[in-house]
Amino acid sequence: MPMTFTKRKMSMPLLLILILPTFAVAQDPVRILPAGQLPDDARLAPPKDLDGYFPFSPPESKEAWQVRAEEVRTQLKVALGLWPMPPKSDLNLERVNVQKFDRYQVTGVRFESMPGFYVTGSLYEPVGKDGPFPAVLCPHGHWTNGRFYEANDGEIKKQIESGAESIAETAKNPMQARCVHLARMGCVVLQVDMLGYADSQQLSFELVHRFGKQRPEMNTNQRWGFFSPQAESHLESVMGLQIWNCIRSLDLLESLESVDKSRLAVTGASGGATQTMIVGAIDPRIAAVFPAVMVSTAMQGGCTCENCTLLRVGTGNVEFAALFAPKPQGLTAADDWTKEVETKGFPDLKRLYALMGAEDKVHLTARTEFGHNYNAVSRRAMYELFNDALGLNASVEERPYKRLTEKELTVWVGRNQPEYSEEFERDLLAEWTVLSEQQINSLLSGDETAFAKFREITEPALDVMVGRNSPTMDDLEFDVKIKEQREDYLLIGGLLHNDQNGSQLPALFLYPKDNWSGQTVLWLSDKGKDGLFAENGRLKSEVAKLVSSGVSVAGIDLIYQGEFLANEQTFEQAPKVENPREAAAYTLGYNRAVAAERINDIAAMATFMRNHERAPKSVGLITFDPAMAGLASVVMAKDSKAFDFAAIKTDGFRFGKVDSIRSPNLLPGGAKYGDVPAYLAMAAPIPLRVMGEDAESLKWVSHAYEKKNQADRLSLTEDIDVTPIDWVLGQLSRFQ
């Protein structure tokens, strides 16, 4: 859209300023809005948290859903650190303590989802029947001691009297009862421990499920721990690891000769339902799922093991469940956060199934007279769904069984149980990082085909990290508030409106007085548009040189810069939700990071400048602030045509070295895909001058330019003596 001019009456003081020589007057900072007034930017609203409202709106067509489903499925994989999927190492399955009963047997199992990291659980198998059998994975939720759970006598009595249970032994351990009956129905069942529960103690319960305080000693640039800014930058989370354990558990079930690979199912309740719906959404091998008492438009999951950065930005659990359509799925509701799902969420889910021609494949058992549960009533609904979906034709009536104790269930018989240590935590994440880097680095240093594969991975990841849709000129409008002719340039100031995200950005344009060449530059600064000016209010010498050479220069207040800050505040900590626990996922699992929003602001400004009615010949970028250079690198990676040339001073800035989860520079995932050097490689072959790096640190960038036979377009500080501004001026002849 064109600029919109707002008439302003020129005051006598302003008139005097314009008359007097500029060298004699110290200018005040240029404000677009009245002092004390903040931009009317939708992103300044309080951040969304896990207790918000997360509706799902089915699309109008199957084709539209297929596009949306792929986007959300990719978002899940990226957020979980599973994009691309890590390489699968040997499971090294060990069986211990086989116990046989009427029509089924139970075996303790332990196997490695990553080298040296164990998944532990119990394997229930039919006896006296011929296979192959369907297989059911049973992750559990936050019931005390998990697989070793034992209800006390008072709780058992309460469950039986309420009608929730009918057999004392099943009431004492409903999770074990579920596995036994599925085995009696003719299923191979694998019940696995959540991290920090029962036999899984390599990561502690307190770390995985009760983390609340940042640990400075684990927030290091090498060998970091979970929940650190470094882990967030690499997308390494306990939730991602837990889902990876589920995927490897399905691998184990598939590896068994007795299992029919075409009939895999997953069911769990509460936190186990979170695992069920997530793995169901991203693993195509699963034929049926039954996530109990979890899916709703309300609370999305309160534990750190159910949250990770990027996960629910613009989406939520009902849409995650929808990703399983059109395959059979059952849900339950109880007197908890799911109590309204029958009217809020499930009707939309059912409409989506109807759109897919499978309205009869999704079911809800709403028994809100019961509290949070996976009781006999809910289990019966699950047995009925699996009976049909897996072709079992078996009785759904539970019968008494021999409940096994912790001593009988443990998988560490005759072997010391591995325990948690910070050193092991560091080792595990170091291994995860190495595996990821091996996947990415080999593509960055490879041939054109390898680099194309890198783009195929990284471009969708950046869409998740920053936002998928870049603004068009139809989204943008510049409302001019100031137009002043100064001695050497015309100053135009106003507000850049972006309808796509509701942003409103104060911006300045400096036009040469008489000799505009048609060349434009965006000047990025950590001070926002004030970075165009020296302390005395006059143009910085570098900016003045550009303007006097016929280049127009623009500056902008990105969100939380300049006029976004009242009373000369500084901005050192990003907003957070009220949750007191210091895990970034509670905020950044539901809201974009400040760094991501700033990247979008830069992209919006670049779009406006390029498509401005004055039709510039080129749009360049200059920044001498390392963090701004890092953000700009992502803009150029997402759109290599955003700028025609760039001169940036990175000084070794890396997203992977951001040292606080509250830092405005924290970009979840920013380090996983090669960090700033990889993003600059994606910008090739635009003319690029990089300061504060050397040939080794930018080897991928050099490699990218060389592959395009454009090595002369890349300049490092150590290569040339020309000043950055003179280098920029020297590039303009390319764009006449």
Automatic annotation (TrEMBL):
Keywords of this entry: Signal
Keyword Signal: yes
Pfam families tied to this protein: AXE1
InterPro entries: AB_hydrolase_fold (IPR029058), AXE1_dom (IPR008391), FrsA_esterase (IPR050261)
Superkingdom in the source lineage: Bacteria
Keyword Cell division: no
Signal peptide start and end residues: 1-26
Chain ranges of the Acetyl xylan esterase domain: 246-293
Full protein name: Acetylxylan esterase
Organism annotation: Blastopirellula marina
